[in-house]
Amino acid sequence: MDARKAHKASSSSSSSTSSSKRLKYDVFLSFRGEDTRKGFTGHLHAALSDAGISTFLDDNELERAEFIKTQLEQAIDKSIISIIVFSKSYADSSWCLDELVKIMECRERLGKHVIPLFYSVDASDVRNQKGSFAQAFEKHEGKHEKEKVQRWKKALTQAADLCGEDLKNADNGHEAKFINKILGVVNKLLDIKSQLDIKHPVGITSRVKALSNHLHIENSGSKDDVRMIGIWGMGGIGKTTLAKAIYNEFESSFEGRSFLENVREVTNQPMGLVRLQKQLLNDILKSEGVNVDSVLKGIEMIRRRLPCKRALVIIDDADDLHQLEAIAGARDWFGPGSRILITTRNQHLLQQVGVDGTYIAEKMDEEEALEFFSWHAFKRRYPEYLDLSKRVIRYCQGLPLALRVVGSFLFNRSIAEWESHLEKLRTSPDGDIQKILRISFEGLPDDTTKKIFLDISCFFIGDDKDYVTKILDGCGFYATIGISVLIERCLVTVNEQKELMMHDLLRDMGREIVYENANGRPEEFSRLWKHEDVTNVLNDESGTEKIEGVALHGSYGTRFSAQAFTNMKKLRSHKK
Q1: By CB atoms within 10 Å of each CB, which of 154, 232, 321, 496 scores lowest?
Q2: How sure is the predictor about 385, in pLDDT bands with cuts at 50, 70 and 90?
Q3: Which CATH architecture has domain 204-360?
Q4: Where in this chain does the record put each TIR domain (predicted)?
Q5: Fold for domain 17-188?
């Protein structure tokens, strides 16, 4: 390089040597300023910085100073990778050649990575000091000591022998594509894969692989398609974690990327959709100056400015069509090869936007659940209290949210405390788990659908779907559409025998809602399903007009009088 002073990608460093010693860079750029500073190297530096890669670049506006050489050597020492831009007059500069010697010494001594780039020069000219390099050394040999000149020549030969990149071999000299290729090499060497934090990614690898089959990111036949894919599943099953893993795995394959987290929650805040649009634009355009003051303006800016960008966009926890219409209303809003990934609890929402595929998020199997729980309960891969841990696994039924919440609560507690808490969970569901699961219930479109969910959770789990539909239709509940909505929202499933099923924690959540609405007094429950509660209320004839349904089983016999039902004026059904 020419006269230089340490300069970070984001700002110039302090002029003091002590300050520079504290700096650490991902990449050190060695180049001939007058050849490439305002062109190729400037663009390369900008691309590295935009990708979040800390890059050392000289500041040519600063005056030459005696300590500059020391700073440069320290910067090379503290950089993980050195990129050498060999251009026609590179060897004219003794500064560049001194840098090169230092770079190759660090490679030999410290195992540093070195990437030689051949910009409008042949590698053979660099290796053998021919062409413009021969002319440069004719001048050096008369001005510098012979030993120094020999060190320079040796360093050039060693660098040219490394596996480098040649501009003329990269898409016929297309500089933008050449820079993108270099970014890929740098990312691979730095192993930049975990930009989004994922704690204890148990079982993630297989799920990423399965979801990748929908995304077709590395499928050359689909490289120009814009694909929109959904991840669908109940609350707490790990949709966001999987989306983060996809982002981390593939973000370097895209020109722009944006992870819009908690879309449902953000949208409920003032100007929430506008904030999301602004984040999307800033993320992909790599700018902080995008001004969006209305949803309509945001839509127009996205449609106008992003079609030129091949982008990876994650829309996490969407629950309303308006959100998607404002953020990703059409595929042509994004450049060829873009991928839009939507996580949601609402399958119908994915159908409304016409996704190209839907990945159904799967609960953890027993082995995965045990390991995931152990990380939270014991901070290790395998549990200490195996039998107690397996009881927790059975309770959580493969739901990562529950495994994390219960595991974290039980961390560093005694066996007696474990036993006590597990006993408590049998009758009183964990509040943190219920809070997340209840979002799906609260988001149901109307009170009738909510009543259908509560009826199923209290009375009809394991019953034939058509049988239940007939009963609930008789109550005026329009159960055909109601049950369909519950299935779309992951609150109810239908097994191969066409029986209605429900995760135990969702069942507990529904029953807890009944408890809460009656302050725990069975005679005021909207639904009575427990043998003990039914017996007490009917024997005492204490039922109120709040009771809408009662589960009567054969074991009760005919001991209850008709008078016991007199005050149940809203009673619409009972199950035998």
Answers
A1: 496
A2: very high
A3: 3-Layer(aba) Sandwich (3.40)
A4: 23-190
A5: Rossmann fold (3.40.50)
**Residue 276 to residue 273: CA distance in whole angstroms:** 5
Place of tokens 């839009």: 340
CB-based contact 231:242 (threshold 8 Å): yes
Report the distance separating Cα 181 and Cα 404, nearest Å.
40
Rg (CA), the chain: 33
The pTM of the full predicted model, rounded to 2 decimals, is 0.70
List the alpha helices (DSSP H) in 320-385.
321-327, 347-353, 366-378
28 pairs with which residues across the strands?
A: 56, 82
Render pLDDT for 284-304 as a digit per residue (tens, 0 to 9): 887 767 889 999 999 999 999
Residues 489 and 232 sit within 8 Å (Cβ to Cβ): no
Q: How far is CA 493 from CA 463, 488, 497, 506, in A?
A: 12, 9, 11, 11
- The number of helices, as runs of H, and strands, as runs of E, in the chain is 26, 15
Strands 527-528 and 549-551 turn out to be: parallel
Assess contact for 55 and 76: CB atoms under 8 A: no
Count Cβ atoms below 10 Å from residue 542 Cβ, excluding itself. 14
- List, by residue number, the catalytic residues: 99
